[in-house]
Backbone:
């Protein structure tokens, strides 16, 4: 069974710090990796995606992918209280839009 | 990014009745849409893939006769929960693929269904 695992948290970080969120996946055929942010009672919002090994930066966010170790991470620099949300990792296999979601990590940024 | 809308945003219905939820792609065409269900404090679970002009593909364990999906046009997919029961109360979210090569999906705002 293909699985995507995340620490449920909550992960608490002070305002201005770097938040590091991790995700591991079981299927070596996975090709595209996504990070979504979901506020309570709302639907997921795409933060960024990555499909090549290494780092990808977008503003305060950096996604890191290591296919050999089968993990993907999201770094949030200069964390703000408005970043407090659940962060979902999603993975697809080759040539498909079908996502497998992790259970999400709840992030709390303390003012 | 692509914009996906859902209607209604919330609905309360009595047990045994049916409820229809609409999902629209507003500024793009979507031959495929996805329907998810999310229970409190759980992640999204894919229910089915909606295909324009053909039958939906349901995930294992999802009753296709209970959750009717119709993809009537390139911008509209509907999910009808038939003979709803309290255990069907959940947050239903649709999504559509973006136009990029990264296989990203864009989610609608969701529909909160409460069955009394």
Residues:
């Amino acid at each position: 069974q293909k699985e995507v695992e995340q620490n449920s948290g909550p992960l608490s970080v002070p305002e201005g710090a770097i938040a590091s969120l991790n995700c591991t996946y079981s299927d070596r055929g996975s090709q595209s990796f996504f990070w979504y942010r979901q506020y309570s009672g709302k639907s997921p919002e795409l933060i960024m995606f990555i499909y090549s090994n290494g780092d990808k930066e977008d503003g305060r966010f950096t996604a890191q992918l290591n296919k050999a170790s089968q993990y993907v991470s999201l770094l949030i620099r200069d964390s703000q209280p408005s970043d407090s949300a659940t962060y979902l990792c999603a993975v697809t296999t080759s040539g498909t839009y079908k996502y497998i979601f992790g259970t999400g990590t709840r992030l709390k940024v303390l003012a | 990014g692509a914009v996906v809308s859902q209607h209604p945003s919330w609905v309360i219905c009595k047990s045994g009745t049916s409820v229809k939820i609409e999902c629209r792609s507003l500024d793009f065409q979507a031959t495929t849409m996805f329907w998810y269900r999310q229970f409190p404090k759980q992640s999204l679970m894919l229910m089915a893939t909606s295909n324009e002009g053909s039958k939906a593909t349901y995930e294992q364990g999802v009753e296709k006769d209970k959750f009717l999906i119709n993809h009537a046009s390139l911008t509209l997919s509907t999910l009808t929960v038939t003979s709803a029961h309290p255990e069907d109360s959940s947050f239903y979210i649709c999504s559509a693929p973006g136009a990029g090569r990264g296989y990203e999906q864009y989610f609608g705002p969701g529909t909160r269904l409460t069955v009394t």
Observations:
- Chain B has no helices and eleven strands.
- The radius of gyration of chain B is 13 Å.
- Chain B touches chain A through 21 residues (CB under 8 Å).
